[in-house]
Amino acid sequence: MAVTKVETRRSLLNAARRVVVAKGYAAVGINEVLAEAGVPKGSFYHYFDSKDAFGEALMKDYFDDYFATMDGIAGDPHSTAAQRLMRYWQYFYDTQAADDCQGGCLVVKLGAEIADLSEAMRVTTKAGTAAIIDRLEAMIDAGVADGSVTVDDTPRSTAEALYDMWLGASVIAKIHADPAHLDRALAVTRQVLHV
């Protein structure tokens, strides 16, 4: 059975995510991604117009997967909004504590790098992080509505502050190879949400 262009593109994006999360974006060459995906050299431009377009597709693909996970957590009808929020933060914790706190979040791994390197990737990452905050705000709103969460600021400001804190804690945990900063972020999150 022949492999379709869509399947090969998917294979390239999956391979790139594995390699890029370990090495960063600028350090990874197209040939390395092709080799990791088992795709013949020289065929990259059949799937992407440029490395920049490839990086943009990589980030969009990452956010699509992330949103699916978030939406699955947020959509659980058998738990309170507070439980769903804490399940999300535990997912964030587990993802970032993996591999001696090297984590798997492309925003943490690439945020500063791509902001200087690629306008298309920066804009995609900006939109993706804004959509994460939108989802967090909706979860906090739901918690206020069902009485399982109380916040001292607006749900939007709370969502922004918590997400910013978690990104920072993830970077410091990565630098120290120690989840203590993630532990602190989890404790502060519970205090901020009063759960």
TrEMBL record:
Membrane spanning stretches: none
DNA-binding region(s), residue ranges: 29-48
Any one GO MF annotation of this record: DNA binding
Keywords recorded for this protein, A-Z: DNA-binding, Transcription, Transcription regulation
Pfam families, alphabetized: TetR_C_13, TetR_N
InterPro entries: Homeodomain-like_sf, HTH_TetR, Tet_transcr_reg_TetR-rel_C_sf, TetR_C
PANTHER family, sorted: HTH-TYPE TRANSCRIPTIONAL REPRESSOR NEMR (PTHR47506:SF6), TRANSCRIPTIONAL REGULATORY PROTEIN (PTHR47506)
Protein name: Transcriptional regulator, TetR family
